[in-house]
Design goal:
Blueprint: E1 2-4, H1 11-22, E2 25-28, H2 29-37, H3 41-64, E3 69-72, H4 83-89, E4 93-97, H5 100-107, H6 121-139, E5 144-147, H7 153-173
Helix pairs in contact: 1-7, 2-3
Length: 177
């Protein structure tokens, strides 16, 4: 399963909890990309730019596709060319959606967020709005969409688990077709 959405939507926290609930492995793609490269995401962006980071992220996606895991993807992963189709073919895509004001509150000063770091409040808000606009159509292709604004992690996990169970039941009722 792939968790997509903007930074601050809750992908990592929900992913960890959902993986425990479903008794599967959890992979945070940002953490794993940093681990594999031996440096922080900020350093990757500094040395290789966003394109270098996205290439490393794509390699990770290819490496974990087909494994039984909950994978929290970076905010822009699904909007890369061909990514939405590749992700959907390799598992269920769940979009954790949140309003910009919710994201800004959760993100805080964004020092650890390469695409928002070193921006003042107004510039950070404008950049976040740009990113949301650029990524929205790709995120909306997800099989499951959950609004996370007024929900705690456990509530989001419950909603995702229920939607997965409902989908499995519908497939079972239809004989797999």
């Amino acid at each position: 399963m792939w968790l997509v959405g903007m930074m601050g939507a809750g992908k990592s926290a929900v992913g960890r909890s959902l993986a425990r609930t479903l008794a599967v492995r959890f992979v945070d793609s940002d953490d794993e990309v940093a681990r594999r490269s031996g440096c922080s995401l900020s350093e990757i962006f500094e040395r290789e730019g966003e394109q270098g980071f996205r290439e490393r992220e794509r390699e990770l996606i290819d490496a974990v596709a087909g494994q039984e895991a909950i994978v929290s993807l970076g905010g822009g992963a699904v909007s890369q060319p061909g990514a939405a189709d590749r992700l959907a073919a390799a598992g269920t895509v769940v979009y954790l959606r949140a309003r910009p004001e919710t994201l800004l509150t959760r993100i805080g000063d964004a020092r650890s967020r390469p695409l928002l770091a070193n921006l003042d409040d107004r510039a950070r808000e404008a950049r976040l709005d740009e990113l949301i606009a650029a990524r929205s159509s790709a995120n909306e292709t997800a099989a499951i969409v959950i609004d996370t604004d007024d929900l705690g992690v456990d509530e989001v996990v419950d909603r995702v688990a229920r939607r997965l169970a409902d989908a499995a039941a519908r497939i079972g009722e239809s004989g797999g077709t």
